[in-house]
């Protein structure tokens, strides 16, 4: 067989020439606005190609500060496109191109999470494809939402393959904490309005529960870094961020996130070398909270078990009536479970069952018992990996990182 070897520098020149010709074609056929966007995409692609770490710096900021554009509407949910979606596509294409030019790069570095991720992605696609064939899922909508879900796995794959040393990881964590501080400042700006606070660019009414979940991650990570003194003397700088994040969490009025804080504390009680300090601090916080909690937060918490006499579909929990919001959530769970019983194996496909406000129930209804099993397998692998990592390393920073993410995982679940 004829074996033709192309020098990497020549291969790179050929790729850049092709990109230049493609850019010239776009300038000719596209309107000026699209030409500017295409030019910026090309510039970002070149930067990401030669400086891969810069791509992740940009992505860390863009995931919280990207404008959201409504591109469509289904019967049950909005179809939105964020600028970080476009950025992620650019980074993925650049990553694959770089791997093709420099063949020594490993496209997929193996981790304990690859198998459950692959299984969950496969069953999601299969369920959605079956839903398309049976007419329950729109082709464009199903594929779009599948890709939106898979984005998170793609980011994981890229980070695993890009990161090379400890300093890069520390830089990423510091940038994440900086972004969290800026997000908190943005939320703090909303507090005087009296509305539930949310992250930037989350639509007209915002997504306070989404912000609440994000803040759980930040609280867990920051608390672990603080308890294990991961940044030496500079660790005390984490205290203002921790306090501010806790305050903003109250103003999200996200009851699910408040409940998540209880479960978030479990890994800290079990694993933290300063568990006594943590427990005493938690007890003092519980004692002080009633005196410092905003009135809107108190009303939100107490109102959960205060049924509305004019609301006809009130649900009950342990003999107590629930408010309309909580009642609607319970009702939607019951309806979702009834839907699942009609198609228990593969479900309805992604978006095939309409909007379901609950992650586990959504996975069950959309991908069936098989999809839920693979999803739980993925969560189990994540928990075991973080647990093993915590016990197998001595470095305070990585030990804190493992503990923080384990607490965040428990809180989110």
Write out key terms for the chains shown.
mainly alpha; about 425 residues; about 70% helix; two-stranded antiparallel sheet; 15 helices; about 5% strand; 4 strands
Shape: globular
Radius of gyration: 24 Å
Largest sheet: 2 strands, antiparallel
- Quickly give the structural class: mainly alpha
Stretches where pLDDT falls below 50 for ≥5 residues? none
Rounded mean pLDDT is 82
The separation of the N and C termini measures 55 Å
Proportion of helical residues: over 70%
Content of β-strand: under 5%
Structure description:
This protein is mainly alpha-helical. The strands form two sheets. Strands 1-2 form a two-stranded antiparallel sheet. Strands 3-4 form a two-stranded antiparallel ribbon. A hairpin with a 2-residue loop joins β3 and β4. α2 packs across α4 and α8 runs parallel beside α10 (255-271). The chain is globular. It contains 15 helices and four strands. Helix content is 70%, strand content 4%. The termini are far apart. The protein has helices at 8-29, 32-50, 52-65, 83-101, 114-133, 139-162, 166-190, 208-227, 238-252, 255-271, 275-292, 295-302, 324-342, 359-392, 396-412, and strands at residues 68-73, 78-82, 316-317, 320-321. The longest helix is centred in the C-terminal third of the chain and has 34 residues, at 359-392.
């Amino acid at each position: 067989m004829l074996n033709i070897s192309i020098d990497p520098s020549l291969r790179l020149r050929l790729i850049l020439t092709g990109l230049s010709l493609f850019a010239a074609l776009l300038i000719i056929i596209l309107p000026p606005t699209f030409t500017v966007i295409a030019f910026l995409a090309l510039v970002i692609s070149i930067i990401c190609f030669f400086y891969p770490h810069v791509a992740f710096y940009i992505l860390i900021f863009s995931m919280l500060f990207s404008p959201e554009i409504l591109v469509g509407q289904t019967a049950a949910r909005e179809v939105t496109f964020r600028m970080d979606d476009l950025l992620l596509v650019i980074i993925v294409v650049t990553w694959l191109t770089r791997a093709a030019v420099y063949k020594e790069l490993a496209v997929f570095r193996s981790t304990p999470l690859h198998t459950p991720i692959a299984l969950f992605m496969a069953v999601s696609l299969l369920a959605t494809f079956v839903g398309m064939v049976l007419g329950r899922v729109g082709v464009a909508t199903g594929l779009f939402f599948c890709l939106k879900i898979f984005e998170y796995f793609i980011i994981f794959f890229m980070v695993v393959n890009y990161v090379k040393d400890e300093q890069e990881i520390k830089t990423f964590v510091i940038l994440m904490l900086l972004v969290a501080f800026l997000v908190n400042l943005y939320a703090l700006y909303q507090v005087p309005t009296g509305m539930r606070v949310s992250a930037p660019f989350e639509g007209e009414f915002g997504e306070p529960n989404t912000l609440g979940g994000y803040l759980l991650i930040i609280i867990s990570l920051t608390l672990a870094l603080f308890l294990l003194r991961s940044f030496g003397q500079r660790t005390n700088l984490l205290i203002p961020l921790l306090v501010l994040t806790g305050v903003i969490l109250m103003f999200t009025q996200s009851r699910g996130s408040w409940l998540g804080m209880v479960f978030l504390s479990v890994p800290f009680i079990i694993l933290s070398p300063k568990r006594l300090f943590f427990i005493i601090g938690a007890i003092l916080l519980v004692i002080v909270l009633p005196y410092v909690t905003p009135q809107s937060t108190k009303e939100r918490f107490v109102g959960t078990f205060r049924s509305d006499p004019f609301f006809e579909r009130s649900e009950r929990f342990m003999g107590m009536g629930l408010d309309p919001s909580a009642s609607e959530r319970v009702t939607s769970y019951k309806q979702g479970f009834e839907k699942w019983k009609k198609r228990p194996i593969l479900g309805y496909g992604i978006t095939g069952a309409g909007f379901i406000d609950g992650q586990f129930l959504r996975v069950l209804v959309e991908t069936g018992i098989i999809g839920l099993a693979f999803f739980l397998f993925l969560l189990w692998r994540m928990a075991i990996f973080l647990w093993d990592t915590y016990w197998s390393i001595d470095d305070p920073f990585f030990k804190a990182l493992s503990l923080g993410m384990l607490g965040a995982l428990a809180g989110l679940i």
